[in-house]
Amino acid sequence: VIIVIRKEASAEEIGTVETTLKELGYGVHPITGVERTVIAAVGAPGHDKEDAAEQLRALPHVEDVIFILKPYKFVAKEYHPEKSTVKVGNVTIGGDQVVIMAGPCTVESREQLLTTARAVKAAGATILRGGAYKPSTSPYSFQGMGLDGLKLLAEAREETGLPIITEVMHVRHIEQVAAYADILQIGTRNMQNYEILEEVGKINKPVMLKRGMTAKIEEWLQAAEYIFIGGNKEVILCERGVRTFEQYTRNTLDLSAVLAVRELSHLPIVVDPSQGTGRASMIAGMSKAAVAVGADALIIEVHPHPERALKDGAQSITIPAFDRLMTELPAVAQAVGRSL
Ligand code: PEP
Ligand code: MN
What is the pTM of this model? Predict the structure, then answer.
């Protein structure tokens, strides 16, 4: 239940409401907004909702009491009506500016990574992507460089100043990946790995949660709730396409998910047109569409030689193609009241 505190209440008065809520048996999670404070009270005691509501409405300094009937609370818009933002270095995800994350699907070598990092930075990207631990459908395909890949990412950050985003695939790697990454990516295959979600909930680094390839929006938001409950509020969602009957594209990129997330949640939302389509020829078009529909950021796979990429070459764009896209995106951003 969300308790809306009267605008004029002082910090001390808000404190007395919190104390009373705790005495009534609620877990108390205050959130201080620009306009006013609301308190999320969870784990209502054993009496019925009507009684609880009456009791809470009677508290001093309380303006309103709202029951959230959704299966997620903290990531719900009711809890935090303003959009939330996640800061990484001097990059803000969820603000007016659309953030571009770009880089190779997978870190393959120093030369491949540094060449790509320099190029995407020069073109205007502000976050570098690159997988060190790679989920693979086939056990025979390249599994990533692991720790050596993380070290190369750190070197690329050192040189370019770009913060890095990289995937964590296993609970036992969280500490290691968090020591190198600026944002931890949870991949589509792990969206419902509740053990990982709980663990990244305890760390002090932003997490980008990709949508499970067969996950409903509600399940995705429930997964984000796991991270939030652990105490980590720096959660970013990423739409990366879902499985449908269509086979021409690798996945069906669900751009309506951006609007759905906007309607239901305060979390920033990123679109991944690379996994979303599986086709380099579609990256520019879907990137522009994603910005037009209101995505807060894009994550794009770029490779100096896509034809030689160890992974996802077919959906990686070349450096000149990325340069071109970066000159086309500002006009789209501007048309929807954003900048790049
Ligand atoms: C990736 O970003 O390269 C990746 C493997 O993503 P996903 O988990 O969405 O498939
Ligand atoms: Mn990939």
Answer: 0.91
